[in-house]
UniProtKB/TrEMBL annotation:
The gene is cobD. Pathway: Cofactor biosynthesis; adenosylcobalamin biosynthesis. HAMAP family: CobD_CbiB. It comes from the Bacteria. Keywords: Cell membrane, Cobalamin biosynthesis, Membrane, Transmembrane, Transmembrane helix. Pfam families: CobD_Cbib. The lineage of its organism: Bacteria, Pseudomonadati, Pseudomonadota, Alphaproteobacteria, Hyphomicrobiales. This is Cobalamin biosynthesis protein CobD. The chain crosses the membrane at residues 60-81, 158-179, 299-318. It is found in: Cell membrane. It is a multi-pass membrane protein. The keyword Metal-binding does not apply.
Amino acid sequence: MISAVLAFAATLLERFIGYPRPVLNAVGHPVMWMGKLIEILEQNANNPAISAARRRRNGFVMLAILLATTAFISLLVVWTLRDIPFGWAVEIFLASTLIAQKELGMAVKSVADGLRESLTQGRHAVSHIVGRDPEQLNEDGVARAAVESLAENTSDGIIAPIFYLLLFGLPGVALYKAINTADSMVGHKNERFADFGFASAKLDDLANFIPARLSALIFTLTARLTSGMDHKAAWRSAKRDASQHRSPNAGWPEAAMAGAIGVKLGGARDYDGETVELATMGEGKDIIEPEDIDRALKLYSNSLWATLAVLFVLALIFG
C-alpha cells in the first residue's frame, strides 16, 4: 500500500476508533510486546555488578536486537498481507495501533474533569500520563503537567509516528515506536540506566529531531486558524525557549503550545523525590487552570484535523 494512503487511512481510523478494548484485553498492544522484550533483555544485560562500559555496550546490543526483531516482524507482516485478500485493511489497522490521538486526548481531558471535582481526582488522572510525583503537585502543577504532557506526546505519540509512516510505511512506524519505547523504559539519566540506556536515549533524540520541530510548526499554523490563540507568540516562544529545555526536542512543542494558549510551562518539578529545575517556556500567565487544559485540547484537536487534512491531500496526490 502507498504510504500516503496508509498514513491517511490509519490516522483517520485511530482518530475515531482508537485501539479496541476487546483486542487490548485479548492480545495486548504492540508497544506492550516491545516493552516486554526490552524488559527481558534489560534484566539479563544491565547487571549493576558489571562495569559501566560493558553496560553501555550491552545497551547498544539490546537496542540492536529490539530493532532487528521489530524490522523482521513488521516486514514479514507487510509481505504476508500483500498476498491475502483484504490484507490492506489489516495493514491499516496495524498502523493505526501505533498512533495515539484518541487515548491521549481522553487522558488529558480526564485531568481537567478531575480537577473540577477535586485536587485528589486531578492528581489521580495526571498520574497516568506523567512520570513526576503527582502527590507533590498543587492544582497549578497538575494542570501544568497535563498541558506539557499533551504537547510533548503530540510530537512523540502522533506526529512522529505519522511522519515515519509516511516515509517508510508500517516498518518505519514500528521501528520508531520501538525506539521511543526503549527510551521511555531505559533512557533515564539515573544510576540504573545512565549507561545501559545511553544508546536508546540518543537514538530517540535523533528520531524525534524533525517531528518535534514539525509539531511546533503545526501548533503555530493551527493557532493562526483557531480563535483566541496567538500564533505569533507560539512561534516566538518556540524559537526563543525550546533550546533552554533539557531535552533537545520536547521544548519545541511545549514552547509553541505555551505561547499559543498564553501560559508559562516548565519550571521546577519532582521526579522520584528529586526536584528538577527546568527552564520556563512561554510568556503568558503563571498559574494554569482547568480552563487552560481545555484551550490546549482545543489547539490539539484542531491540529489533528489540520494534520488529517494534509494527509488527505498527500493521499490524493501520491495515491
